[in-house]
# Entry
Amino acid sequence: MNADGGLLLIAILASSLVPGLLIFFLPEERHGLRTLLNLSAAGIKLVLVGVLLLGVQRGETFEFGLTLLPGVDFVLAADALSLLFATLSSILWFVTTLYAIGYLEGSPRRSRFFGFFSLCVSATVGIALSGNLITFVIFYEILTLATWPLVVHRGTPEALRAGRLYLAYTVTSGLVLLAAVIALNLLAGSQPFASGGYLLHLPDELHGLLQIIGLALIAGFAVKAALIPLHSWLPQAMVAPAPVSALLHAVAVVKAGAFGIVRTLNDVFGLELAADLRLTDVLLVLAALTIVYGSIQALRAQDIKQRLAFSTVSQVSYIALGVAMAGPLGVIGGLVHLVHQGLTKITLFFCAGNFAETLGIHEIREMRGVGRRMPLTMAAFTVGGLGMIGLPPLAGFISKWYLGLGALEGEAAWILGILAMSSLLNAAYFLPPIIAGWMAEPEVTRPPAHKTRFESHWMLLFPTLFVAVLALLPGLLAGLELSPLGWVELIVERGYVLVPGGDMDNGTGVSP
Amino acid sequence: MIESLDPGTLYPFGGAALFALGLHGLIRRRHLILRILAVNIMGSGVFMVFLGIAARGNAPPDPVAQALTLTGIVVAVSATAFALALTVHLARLTGYAVLLPGPLQTHRDSHPDDR
Amino acid sequence: MSTASPDTLIFATGALAAVSLGLPLLASAWPWQARRIGLLGLPLAILGLLAAVGLFLDAAPGMDAPAVRVGLGGWEAPLGVTLHLDGLALAMLLLNALVALAGSLYARGYIHTAAGERQFWPLWLWLWGGLNLLVLSGDAFNLFITLEIASLSAVALVALTGDTDAVTGAMRYLLINLLGSLSFLLGAALLYGEFGVLDLQLLGELADDGPTVRMAAALMLGGLLMKAAVFPLHVWLATAHASAPAPVSGMLSGMVVAAMFYLILRLWLLIFAPLGTPALAVLLGLLGSAALVWGSLQALRAPRLKIVAAYSTVAQMGYITLAFPILILHPAAWPVVVFFAFAHGLAKAAVLMAAGTVQKAAGHDRMNALGPVLRARGRTVFALGLGGISLMGLPLTGGFLAKYLLLEAGLLAAADTTTIMQVWTALWVVMVALGSLLATAYILRMVAPAFAAGERNPGGHVSAGMEWMPLALAVGAAAMGLAGASLTGLLEHTTVAA
Amino acid sequence: MNAALLTFDFVLLAGLLGVAWRCLASTDLFRAVVLFITFGLLLAIAWVRLEAPDIALAEAAIGAGITGALLLVTLERLKHIMNRPRTDTDHDPAPPPDPVASDADAPGAAPTGDAASRAADAGNAALSCAPAPARGRWITLVVTVGLAGLLMATLATQEHDPGLQPTVAEHMDVSGVDHGITAVLLNFRSWDTLLELAMVLLAGLGAWSLGRHDALPARPTPGPVLPGAVRLLLPVAIVTGVYLLWAGSHAPGGAFQAGAVLGAAGILVSLARPHELPDPDPRLLRIGVTAGALLFLAIGLWGLFAGPALLTWPSELAYPLILIIETGATLSIALTLVALFIGGRSPREDT
Amino acid sequence: MIADLLTTVLVLAGLAFFAAGTLGLLRFPDVYTRLHALTKADNLGLGLVVLGLMLQAEGPAMIFKLALIWVLVLAAGATAAHMVAQRTWTHGEFERRE
# Structure
């Protein structure tokens, strides 16, 4: 418990919180200073998370504790799992800030936007680094409060309606979570996250109660993870500006829900107890249903962002599916998909944002022949689309591959069917726009690329390309230590209780 | 029924009756002057209970209870004086000195078009 | 561990009482300088209070009885009047100091006519002083007088604006206060008749479960519930709080209502706790739930910003009334009342002062026409939002800790009682959850216009104090979220009946 | 003998309840106020019966006297406000025309002058008020009777507790005075008395904060009788006040009763000769009104620093200190009561 | 013994006058006659009662105080009666209501 470790965690949190608060009080016309603050904050956070990454890899422990109430402590801790989410969100925050600066050129109320934007990321990193369930729920609800103003940023009546719906869902889920956390705190005391769970010592007659608490926790997190039937706020929230839907609905908010489910099953109940309480089975069915439902809805959606939103609904359930399989391979598939889906989806959202901002394209059918006019963005869109479908060299394939292995390992063959069907559906709703984009004749003659050297504003193009490359890397360099797959194997190796009946074929024995 | 009807028991009963009578008047009557009188009568009822308690038993009366009553009377008169000043101020503003039971007059004068 | 010798604490208590009375007296004697007396005196008094808190925390573990009892005039308990300073009293003194300081700095800009200042500041200091003396006093009759002082100064402050609503609200508030004080006094008289003692702690030791104690409880707690605007008797609150000057309505909703609940808690802990029967628990629970729902619905319908805030006070007081049934089943959870009073005090004062700033800038506070001003004044909306978040009980604010404690106490209470009471307690827990949902609804109603698109017009000039004080209070309410442990530590040293 | 006292008690209580009920049930405000003053006097007799002469004195002087005067002057103001057509704009009306100056005709003028009668009719309207609404009559009756029953039942169970009388008697020697009530008021529970002085001051501040005072609408009847009587009564009142203050240390009397008597004298003066009423400098008036409580606290502070706690009087100095405090209190109370009778703050304060 | 007897006689006589005054108050038709009855009968009644009590008084101070009470009541009664009569005469509002 070295003190400077705790300070590092606080520094990471503060690196986006303090600039955010400063930006709030910046007068609107100070663009230069605001951009400087934004980018420097993102840069510092990246460096700090990097230092933390290396520290955790070397096995050091980082801990920060503060007692809010007797028996209730605010704990920040960094373990391998939290680093996965923290690295993902800090990288993507840097990129999205750049993108947002470009996207919001000349629009009003940017100080307010970037203020809340930084608060959101602080909350997301807080969620990643929280050391026990109560801290997790605290950051979880702060995330709600920070995202609401971004969803209603445009101020149009439907934005406000979407905001109201979003708030209704998330505040209710917050209440359910709080009640469950308090009950858990009363039963087992305020325990930090411990891989393999800290509820094993409880007597058996409490299992009924634990089941209810487990279901409540899952339901609470399911709202943000957009599982059926609690998903309807996500498509409505697409009314927000592109950077918001990109970072928040591809990375921060949705992943927070999925991360919550992972933490609950893995670090609170422990997969073994979760399986006994049949929580994993409930989650399995729910995830499977959501995958299929999400893909079907995506197929029917005509607006690009709606399609991407429903695709997110189904993709996030992969993570839930992976964890619910309770086998190490399945968990690897689920966790690695957390990163892959994040990178691929953000590429797609950036491309959608580019199309909308430069050519005013909102519908799928308007994308005919856009490849001629904006070849680079279309290329990024293709990489993203194929990644989603899961073609071999790309990231999507790896996560689906491990999910398939996990399904076999857990003797749940029907999951293989679900995975195959969803890949087909993915192809069904991603291939037509890609093909139309490249091959089809554009109906309307588009003005040639105006005088600037690139096809759209450089601050929109470069982040898109950068993220497209990032979406490629995990697929190609899967074997590396620091690649998402390598890191997930490190997580599983460090933390997982081996569920009897399935043994790791690559021989990395796992001790709790 | 009450074994001895000495003032120590009789007057507290009278005080309780006065308190109830005053409460009845406070609730029933709408005019502010009458409500202020009712509050004063309730106050006298409480002081009668206090002094009745002070005079209990055949020992000399308890000076603490009597001192409290004196303080109470002075507090009552200052509260009444302020209440009367407020009533006059209210009458000067609204033209009448009656508190209508309606809870929210503020709706009345708020902008007509935001019903 | 060097325990500060108790007599420095005794001196500190006496000094606190003397200052709480001295400042208003000075201001009343010299109203031309009342503003300067207030703005210099209050901070000094608060520094003294902080020193006293330090001394108390340092000395408390060393002392046998967890409270400092000072017999004024040198006369001990049964004969003389005793001041009673313990953790609970210090917490309320701190809240009173914070809200009064913020209100004073806010009033600097809000009341700018010389004549207005000469009338406002003496009464304002009397309200602050009266509440301090109320919290310090440990004698039943003395509590009656301090209640009267606090209520009369509050009523005079409400009527200060001089428009029809304010004076009507003030009149209604005065009558309810007089009725409440008289029933409190009658309760004290009954207790004196039975036990011949007026000091609360001695009464606590003597009190049995006889008819007198039950009748006295009904009268005293009934009177205080009337003054705290609990559901069936809350009609006066909306008009009085909405039409009073902003710093006054901040103080009324923030501190005066909380002081009444402090007194109910004090009487409960010392004397009336054994009277808690399940039937009383159900009644209080129903009252609290009705207040929660009815207050929130009214807040959702009210056309003016300050009326929304006033009805939100009625709703939030429903929370505290809900806490009592849970206290009956699980007595150790009493600090939840103080947490709620503290969190609501800071947050509501912030919201009401922010509403006052908006009203001053826009010239009116009709909700459907406030869009432009709200959009232009980011700081005030941030204060409204942050205060609102604490009222909703969302994380890392004082309200969140209070809601956490209440839910925890509710679940604990539900765990070990008879099945019927389990059902009722479950209902209370659900009502608490519903309450925070309804709170989200009406807070959203206050803040949403700021985010809707539309033209921006900052409205009239507003002084710096009126700009920053609501924000400072809101940040205070949020910071309380981190200070939960120290507040619990302070509350540990409180006299609770055997 | 006991039977006679018992009947006296029953008659007195019946009288009290009857007067109180008639007062609250009357539809004419003037009748209600007169009945209330009678109630106050009967109450004074009841306090004498309960062997509390101090309180009887206070009740008669303050409860019946001062409160009665305040009520009557409020009725006059209400009548005056109702008569003048209510113009919404002016908050502080111009001082009302004083009929003494206006109807210059001789006192023997015919009573049925139309100006006088029209004013009289409007006046009567102002003083009458609607009877209680029929709705909800029974519920309140049941509630209040139930409450009275409960209270009486509780009081019946209380046996005769000697209260604090023995403890007071035990400490009388140290208290500096030898009259029980004054000892309690100014030594044992001096904090209550200090706060009570603050309460009186606060009522004055509150009344002043509401608005400027309009000249007294009370219309003294013309002719020399009232000024003559006042010239006779004033010195007697002042002497009685000072005597009461002095007697308080060993017999019934004290600051509050003396303050009330002097206040009554002040009210009499302000009623009898409104024109020459010297408009005091507002700063002095404010200091005068606060002087009593301020002096009390200042002396109390000495106890805070030297003695064991706030408001401690050393036993040998107790008597002189108590006397100083009582004089200050009497002056302040008298001033405040007169100010409350006059109503608002002096216009000179707002310049 | 004689003093006690005398006191009872004087006080009883005083009470008789008081009764007469009250009877006058109830029976007389208008304001002026009722004023007349009250002031005359009650003052005399009080004088007798005060005389009776003077016999019981211990020292001269008590006697002087009793006499002072009587004088004050006389002065107050006279002034009050005059003012009520004056008021009725000029405004006549009381008369009409009877």
About this structure: Chain B has one domain: 7-114. The CA atoms of residues 47 and 72 of chain B lie 7 Å apart.
